[in-house]
From TrEMBL:
TPR repeats lie at residues 270-303, 310-343, 350-383. PROSITE patterns: TPR (PS50005). This is Tetratricopeptide repeat protein. Belongs to the Rap family. Coiled coil: none annotated. One of its GO terms (cellular component) is cytoplasm. It comes from Hyella patelloides LEGE 07179. Its main location: cytoplasm. SMART domains: TPR. It is found in: Cytoplasm. Keywords: Cytoplasm, Repeat, TPR repeat. Signal peptide: none annotated. InterPro entries: Bac_ResReg_Asp_Phosphatase, TPR-like_helical_dom_sf, TPR_rpt. The lineage of its organism: Bacteria, Bacillati, Cyanobacteriota, Cyanophyceae, Pleurocapsales. Pfam families: TPR_12, TPR_8.
Amino acid sequence: MFQIKLLTRNLVIILFGFSGIVVNINSYSVVAQTEASEPLAIPQNDPLLPPNNINRELSPLEKKRIKTEIETLEIEANSQLEQGQQKEAFNIWFRQLRLYRAISLSEEIIALGRVGEIAWQNNRGQELKVITQRLDSIYQEQKTNNNVTAKLLNILGTSAQQTRNLDNAIAIYNTLLTQARQADNIQLEQQYLETIGKLYLDKFDYSQAANIYEELLTFNSGDITTTATEEYLSNLIDIYRYNKQPQKEIIVKKQLIDYYQAQEDNQKIGKLKVSLGDDYQTLGEIELAIESYQEAIMLGQSFQQIALTSETLAKLGRLYQRQEQYTLAIATYQQLLDVQKQAYNSYGVMNAYDRLGRVYLILEDYEQAFTAFTQGLEIAQSLNYQVGYFTDLIDQVEMKIK
């Protein structure tokens, strides 16, 4: 009887032990499933961290061990990424992020931004989504607890930029901008406006970007570096071009020309003059377009900018031709021919002869057209390029002469 009771007792103990194992297996299964679906959203079991049900401050020794492990994990993750094992690399980075979460909120945010940028660069959409959700969760938690400091907002803003969460980044920097204005901190206000302007450009939201850069230009020139002034004006020119606002573009280009004149940077003025001429043509203001092109040509010649001079002469010649001012067109193309010869640009010389011949054809001056095309053919033969083109033109002219 005693043996039967002992056997029964042992069976109960064994069965109880098995049930415990089943419970533990189920528990680990639940954790594993949760980690796979929400790897950063819940407290994680890690051999370097206390169990989840123990809430206490980590000791200096524990933190030191964790930081050492973080450095090791960084090396391992980068190695996996270099080998093309992206999934494995991000699994390692996610453990690293959980360890950062245990030791420092600011370090976690910085690490989230860094790993998120890698995810974006490698088209890892799911990992990027997990990281941006964690960053948003941190922001909301800190707002709820009234712990949103300027330092926290700055690192959150940087991480939002790195993870390409541009709307969040703009919202964060707008908050910082409001704080800077309330504190009457002009330097920080300018800094945050610059950041917001770049974010709107990254979003291709040119209307909002224009508002920002227009506001930046209202700052006293003594508070803005010369590089910043050039950047603001250049960005506005690009924005107005994208928005197809040539009149506003012209206004800002004139401001940039004034800026370059103050800096005595004459070489950049010529390109802007050409660009202004293009804008005036778009608006149908032909006389102003001609004036701008002529000013650009003078600058190009003064500073021996052969490419600029050639480009502008070609544009001016075409404009005269469209306006049926053929005498001026011929004079301009002759000038272009001289510039190309001085530059020993055979292709340029050949094209200049072609332009001249075409104008002479319009004027029915076939002798001059024949001469221009023949000279163009000589260059074409030396280059072994467009020989047939010039030969056909000469044949057409000869038929007219006969």
